[in-house]
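Saturday, quiet lab. Running sequence design on the structure tokens for the scaffold JK sent over.
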């Protein structure tokens, strides 16, 4: 089916998913995929909480320690499209298991790393399967749930990432601080092995569409809607990271919270992220780009209010929850939109969501740093205004994406 063929329904993602599944079997299979998302979320963010222990043990500077975060993000950006292309023609459960093998091996490499340079390499390798696994998992979940509930199914898979920030990261950070930072990698490897076992037990074999090929996936790159969607994802998520990167500084220096209260600040933001992920899945099943438009508009509003009212404690916490909620609503809707832009290359299109997410992480942090520079106090409100401006640009891009989608005769 070409993009110009009118249709009111999403294009099918696969043609053969095996035997009919009961509702319970679908739920267990999707939860198994979410467990993998949880493991990935833990390794992506727990490294930040253990940097002090790692740099002290390996004798490097804090600045060098930041390379462990950068190396992982670079692995995601590079690995997502390349490994997704490798899975274009493969049965999807089998490919998800292969990606998990790579994920586990990289973490065992990290656990045994004899020096900092080796650890940086292992972090890059750990990031390689990240985007391809989420892309494969999203397509599996969407097929098992069916067109009417695919947004909610994708949201459950992505919720593993959000819930990891809420529960897994603090727990694994404590393990690393109590027993040694290397054990963080061992715990993540165990979570990866648990995911493999759960997929083998509960997930069905799911085959790609007939005629799927690497060449066909690459042809999808010549697609204006896909690139508009990628740009939208980068701009949309960069606003959240502009504020998230400097959140603890705002909480202490602008709002006046004590350092001991910071875990509650992070918890409230994480709660908003989890809530938004599920809301995004629910409303995406009603209207994908409609959800993006509303969420992006709310991000602009709530970030502006956050910048203006961050000095009032209860309003700061309320707006922080709303920022996390509205920004995370974009997750399932953007993932679904990218799949819809390239129906003949869903694997590659889905992977670009995670490359864009990590690019947004870097862009948001840099944009926030530029407006703060070395200034303190009220200047710490500036990243919120940067995030609001990015969201306004995101609204304009969303309107353009809606126009292109309607022009292609597809459901908005």
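Result came back. Writing it out in full:
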């Amino acid at each position: 089916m070409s993009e110009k063929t009118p249709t009111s329904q999403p294009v099918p993602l696969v043609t053969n998913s095996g035997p009919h599944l009961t509702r319970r079997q679908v739920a267990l299979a999707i939860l198994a995929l979410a467990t993998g998302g949880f493991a990935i979320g833990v390794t992506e963010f727990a490294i930040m909480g253990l940097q002090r222990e790692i740099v002290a043990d390996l004798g490097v500077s804090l600045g060098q320690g930041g390379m462990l975060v950068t190396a992982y993000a670079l692995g995601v950006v590079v690995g997502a499209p390349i490994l997704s292309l490798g899975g274009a023609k493969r049965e999807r459960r089998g490919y998800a298991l292969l990606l998990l093998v790579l994920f586990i091996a990289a973490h065992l490499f990290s656990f045994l790393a004899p020096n900092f340079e080796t650890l940086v390499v292992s972090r890059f390798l750990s990031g390689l399967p990240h985007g391809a696994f989420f892309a494969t998992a999203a397509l599996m979940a969407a097929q098992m749930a069916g067109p009417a509930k695919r947004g909610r199914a994708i949201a459950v898979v992505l919720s593993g990432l959000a819930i990891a920030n809420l529960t897994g990261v603090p727990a694994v950070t404590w393990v690393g601080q109590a027993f040694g930072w290397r054990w963080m990698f061992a715990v993540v490897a165990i979570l990866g092995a648990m995911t493999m076992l759960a997929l083998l037990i509960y997930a069905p074999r799911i085959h790609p569409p007939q005629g799927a090929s690497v060449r066909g996936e690459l042809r999808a790159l010549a697609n204006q809607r896909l690139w508009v969607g990628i740009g939208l994802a980068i701009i949309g998520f960069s606003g959240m990271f502009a504020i998230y990167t400097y959140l603890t500084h705002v909480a202490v220096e602008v709002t006046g919270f004590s350092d001991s209260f910071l875990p509650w600040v992070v918890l409230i933001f994480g709660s908003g992220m989890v809530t938004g992920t599920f809301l995004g899945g629910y409303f995406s099943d009603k209207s994908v780009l409609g959800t993006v438009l509303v969420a992006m508009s709310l991000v602009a509003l709530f970030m502006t209010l956050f910048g203006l009212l961050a000095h009032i404690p209860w309003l700061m916490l309320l707006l922080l929850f709303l920022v996390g909620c509205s920004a995370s609503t974009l997750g399932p809707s953007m993932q679904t939109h990218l799949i819809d832009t390239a129906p003949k290359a869903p694997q590659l299109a889905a992977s670009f969501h995670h490359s864009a997410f990590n690019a947004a992480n870097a862009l948001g942090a840099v944009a926030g740093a530029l407006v703060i520079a070395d200034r303190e106090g009220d200047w710490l409100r500036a990243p919120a205004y940067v995030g609001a401006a990015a969201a306004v640009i995101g609204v304009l891009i969303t309107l353009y994406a809606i126009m292109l989608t309607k022009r292609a005769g597809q459901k908005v």
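Notes for JK: The chain has two domains: 23-202, 214-407. The radius of gyration is 20 Å. Ask whether to fix the surface positions before the next round.
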